[in-house]
Write a structure and sequence with these properties.
Layout (H helix, E strand, L loop, with lengths): L1 E9 L9 H11 L20 E4 L4 H22 L11 H6 L8 E7 L2 H4 L4 H5 L1 H5 L1 H7 L3 E9 L6 E10 L9 E2 L1 H4 L2 H23 L3 E4 L10 H16 L4 H49 L1
Parallel strand pairs: 1-7
Antiparallel strand pairs: 1-3, 2-4, 3-5, 4-5, 5-6
Helix pairs in contact: 7-9
Length: about 300
């Protein structure tokens, strides 16, 4: 049975969307507002095939709309309790945009299968992934991660989904009762649960849509927390690695050989210690013989 891997990447740390500046970069890439000559997988003539599932071709305005819809009531209730005017929040989006401690939004990437799987598929077949990828939006919403903009790229070797969302933490005791918070919402446990649900849904939907009997390939092929540039580079490295059949079996073999080598080194060191000890004993015996000979003389 054929195996297909599901990649799910959630931007954080150096790849986080901290401010509007980062949103502009995501907007330029996701909505193809730039000419990237370094991306060899990108075919500009197919960019018109890309599909925006949620939002528009202006990600900044899409995120602002989510802030308005999700936080206006909480901001209003918070301001009612403030006696000092300087403590009131005039624009929550701008406040977070200028807050270096809180991420403004989060970017996620979703992909089913690799370039090898999709190389012989028609554009019509690739477009069927739009409905499958859209399932991710409801999965995220159930966990208080509201999608602002989502685009399926069909102008590269593999169809994949870029998604910009706002993670929302509710029932907060300090500050707004409802706040944006990637740290509180996207915990390691939550990311793991989202990945498992996404894998299950994508595989099942693929089987129904394409009428192919497939199973999930365990483990993501690429590491988490990659920005777009690093993600593309990692895909190239992975492609080269596959060409040389660098798979899990080889990795396990190398690790086994490494452990065996470590054991051999340990054994050699133990034998060396024994030889050194034997050498010291012989030297001591020679010295004793010399003393006895000297006494006899």
């Amino acid at each position: 049975m054929k195996e297909l891997g599901v990649s799910f990447h959630c931007g954080s740390r150096e790849n986080a969307i901290r401010s509007e500046k980062d949103l502009k970069k995501a907007d330029a890439h996701n909505n193809r507002k730039y000419k990237n000559k370094n991306n060899q997988e990108l075919d500009p003539e197919k960019s018109h095939e890309n599909v925006v599932i949620v939002g528009t071709n202006n990600i900044i305005e899409d995120v602002k709309k989510v802030y308005k819809n999700e936080f206006n009531e909480a901001v209003y209730n918070y301001n009612l309790k403030q006696k000092r005017e300087d403590r009131k929040i005039l624009d929550y989006y701008e406040q977070i945009n200028n807050d270096k401690q809180t991420n403004l939004a989060v970017e996620m990437l979703f992909q089913l299968g690799d370039s090898e799987h999709w190389k012989d598929k028609s554009m019509e077949d690739k477009k069927k992934m739009v409905n499958i990828y859209s399932k991710a939006i409801d999965i995220l919403k159930d966990r208080n991660i509201v999608t602002a903009q989502a685009t399926v790229h069909l102008d590269e070797s593999s169809p994949h989904l870029h998604l910009i969302a706002v993670p929302i933490a509710e029932n907060n005791k300090r500050g707004l009762s409802k706040q944006v918070s990637q740290n509180k919402v996207l915990t390691i446990k939550t990311i793991k649960e989202i990945r498992e649900e996404i894998e299950k849904v994508f595989i099942n939907e693929y089987k129904k849509t394409y009428k192919e009997d497939i199973t999930l390939k365990k483990g993501s092929e690429l590491p988490d927390h990659l920005d777009v540039k690093k993600y593309k580079k990692a895909k190239e490295i992975l492609k080269v690695a596959k060409a040389y059949e660098y798979n899990q079996e080889i990795k396990d073999t190398l690790e086994t050989e490494l452990e065996n080598t470590k054991a051999e080194i340990k054994q050699i060191e133990e034998e060396k210690a024994e030889v050194e000890k034997e050498k010291e004993n012989k030297i001591e015996n020679i010295e004793n013989v010399k003393k006895e000979t000297s006494n006899l003389t």
